[in-house]
Structures are given as C-alpha cells and as structure tokens.
Sequence to fold (359 residues):
Amino acid sequence: MKFNKIVFVAGSLVVLVVSIIVYYFFYPETGINREQKFVKDNLTKEDCLHENLIAVFENDKSDYVGKVKVIIRDKQYNKIISSFDIDDVAKRNYHPVEIHECGVYALKSFNYDYKSSKTLSGFSRELWFYDYSGNGKLLVVFSGESASGVPDAGGIPGRLYSFNYSYDFRVSPQETHVILLRGYLESSDYALIVKDLETLKDVFVLPIADIERENPDIIGDVGLKGWSRDGRYFWAGMAYGANTLSFIRIDIKTMSFAVFAAPKDVLGGDALNIEKGLITVHPGNVWYGIADVTEQEKAERRKQGAGTELYIENLFTKKREFVAKTDEPLYYFKPKWLSDTELQYELPNGERKIYKINI
Fold:
C-alpha cells in the first residue's frame, strides 16, 4: 500500500512537470514571459512611455545621413521591448536626436551631397516627430528650396533656397515647446524662437539686437544649452570663439528673459548647472588653439609656479566657491554636473572626483 502511494505521488509529479512545460511552451505569454508581456502590452500610456520603460537611440555616425535605431527597454529586466528605425537623420550633427517621454525628435536631411557640399534638387533639412510606434510627422522646415528664397552658390544654378533656422533644436521636458535659432551673428533677424509644439506657432521671439542695445560687449554666437526640469526656463549662451561671453535665460511662464555676463575666463568646456544657474570657472585659463603656443605658455607658467584652479560661480549672486587645484598650468578639469548639487571633475592623473556644492 505504501508502495502504491509512492508510485501515485511520483506519477502525479511527472504529470505536473509535463503540464507546466506544455503550459509554458504553448502559452509563452505567461510564466517566465509574463513580465515582458505586461510591459509590451503597456508600451504606451496615452502614446507615452510607461514608467517602467526607457528609450535610447543608436547612432554609429558611419554616414553623414542615414538610419538611426530607437530602442525601447524594460528598466527592471533590461529587455528590449520594441524598436524602430528613423531614416534620413543628419547623423553627424552634434545634436541629431532627442528622446522624450512621449516621442522622439530628429533632425533629418534630404538631397544634399556632403562630399561636395552641394545642394541637390529637393534639398531640405527638417525637424520630425516620431511616436513610439514609429509613426513620423514633419514639424519644422529648417531650410530648403523656396520660390522666394536666395540663390545658393554651392547648389544648383537658378534655384532659390530659404534658410529659416540653424540646424539645432531643444524640446522642453513636457514637450510643449521647442527652441530654435534664426539667422546668424550680425544678421538683422538673429533671434531665439520659442514655438508651441501643438500649434507650431511662434509664442516668443527674442531678437539678439534687443540684447545688444543694452549689452554690446557680451554679444556673440548663440548656442543652445537646455531646459530646466520643470520646463519653465531655457538657457542659451553667447560666445566669441572659445570664450563664453554671457548667458541668456528665457522664462516661458512670463515670456521674458534675463542676461547674465559670464565670469572672466569661462571657456566653452565649462559646465553650466541649469537648475541652479551655476557655472564652472578656470581662472586665468586661455585658449590658443595652437599646440606650440600652448606648450610655450605652459612652460612659462611652470617657471612662475602657476598652476590651475577650479571654481564654481553663481550667476545670480556672483558668489564663487573653490573646488580644486593642481600644479599643472592651463589644465582643464573636465567638469560635468552629475546632479543639481554634485560636480564631477578629473585630476591630471585621470582620477575622477565628485564635489558637493555649498552655494
């Protein structure tokens, strides 16, 4: 009798194991795959990424223009849930794609011969939006053929082109606005443009000439920096060559702006803390752009015992805080903000350190 019970139990276990294997095999959406299926079924929530998902893009920059792959992963299990390709992306632009919660924004280029730097028939550069199903739509034409444009010396004779915006953009975290740059330094229409992403209408235009009237000594080429997390403020910088001259902060809520002169000796590699209005400073550092001249200057400074210091300055209060020092002259600490309060920097020996701010 005892033997029969053992046989019965063993047989039941075999049936159970076989049932589980069959169940998992024929119903892969459950069991070991149920987490992946749950995330896949909830890929979007009102066309936006589920909170458990993250999207990234792969860009090998092998071509001037080509395909970029967008990959959606599950944060918890690090599994690829979905992916899609965006064609005709200006891959070598320094800022070709932005990933956001509700979609992807890409700078696309059509009919341009990068090898000869010539426009072709049908030339256009455009900003596009893609949802996470891979559906795309045109938002803004940066430049292209136009019946009322100007001749392009590098393009096809007789054709006219309109150059509406520089090939850069920044979309607000809430995806309500996009910042564009119109014109160029010394052109009469040089301006920062704020567009409403729903209507695509200009809701705020900041002519650089308006800033120049009050601050003629701090005007330079405008570079887009970034948005505050709440989407209220946008920062841009103005520079002449490697030297940063000033910063602009646009307030989207009040549609106003403020200009801050940069501290002396701020270079293009210094790091701006957008949330707190802080900038790193290497006092006394200069940029020559010629290796022999730079090495000669370093040798002179070593004789004088002059090294390099790193500071953080508050653009609002002008208060400055010491971070680090090295005996190496004209050294660049490679500053990078890891958070609102943590600055990473690198010593000459390659060691990375983190400094927590007090200002």
